[in-house]
Design goal:
CATH class of one domain: Mainly Alpha
Strand order of the largest sheet: 1-2
Shape: extended
Structural class: mainly alpha
CATH architecture of one domain: Orthogonal Bundle
Strand content: under 5%
Oligomer: single chain
Low-confidence stretches: none
Mean pLDDT: 82
Distance between the termini: 99 Å
Largest sheet: 2 strands, antiparallel
CATH topology of one domain: Penicillin Amidohydrolase, domain 1
Number of helices: 10
Number of strands: 2
Length: 242
């Protein structure tokens, strides 16, 4: 026998429920879209607010005369000044503009204070670095510098600190915004000449990789003639760069 066609009537109440669910879904999607836009805006602002001012005029206390900073297409600065102390002051200011997070991080490393930034996981590293005593040595060397040379380091530090007077927290770099989420009490200390000199110790440590060869060559030099030493440790062929 042929089956009679079936029929389902949709009641008005069910239709209203479907319409209400559709509106709720649209509101949720709209709220998510707004949230994404807000978070994107906050993220962009967090990055952009740390960018240095690279045009116009800046009034910076501490300079004796006007200094000009020109940047090429890659952002590399060229500093022109009439006085050596102004030149070094501006160099410190520009370095802080471009890369203070790196400077601050390296200062914590050379002074064996990484755990202040990253917690207990860095205590073994700090213990090792404190044993090396880079920052203590730098402080002693700065104290022994002639007044003129020490003044150069002080001018550079004054330029860094002039920038730190203008900026704080995330304004110094996106990394400080992230760091502030776990370490709200952290803020950069004023820069000192010893902070600059201490990095020279870290650079020397990084360049020590051939110390075994240098030591062996020095010991052999007392027993072998120069020609034999040259055979064992040939020099690097010189190449001209045009």
């Amino acid at each position: 026998m042929p089956r009679s066609p079936s029929r389902t009537d949709v009641r008005p109440a069910a239709r209203r429920r479907r319409g209400r669910l559709r509106r709720i879904l649209m509101l949720v999607l709209a709220a998510l879209l707004v949230l994404v836009l807000v978070l994107s805006g906050v993220a962009a602002w967090s990055v952009v607010r740390a960018f240095p001012q690279t045009d116009g005029t800046l009034e910076v206390p501490g300079l004796q005369e006007t200094v000009t900073v020109q940047r090429d297409a890659r952002g590399v600065p060229t500093i022109t000044a009439a006085r050596a102390d102004d030149l070094l002051f501006a160099q410190g200011f520009v370095h802080a503009q471009d890369r203070f997070w790196e400077m601050g991080f390296r200062r914590h490393m050379t002074s064996a204070r990484l755990s202040e930034l990253f917690g207990e996981s860095q205590v073994p590293t700090d213990t090792f670095l404190r044993t090396l005593g880079w920052h203590r040595t730098a402080q002693a060397e700065v104290a022994a510098l002639p007044a003129e040379e020490r003044g150069y380091y002080e001018a550079y530090a004054a330029g860094v600190n002039a920038y730190l007077e203008e900026r704080s927290g995330g304004g110094l770099g996106l990394e400080y915004s992230v760091l502030g989420l776990q370490n709200r009490g952290s803020s950069p200390e004023p820069w000192t000449p010893a902070d600059s000199v201490a990095w020279l110790k870290a650079m020397a440590w990084d360049l020590r990789t051939n110390i075994e060869d240098e030591t062996a060559r020095a010991l052999l030099a007392g027993d072998l003639d120069p020609e034999r030493i040259a055979d064992l440790y040939p020099g690097t062929p010189s190449t001209s760069i045009r």
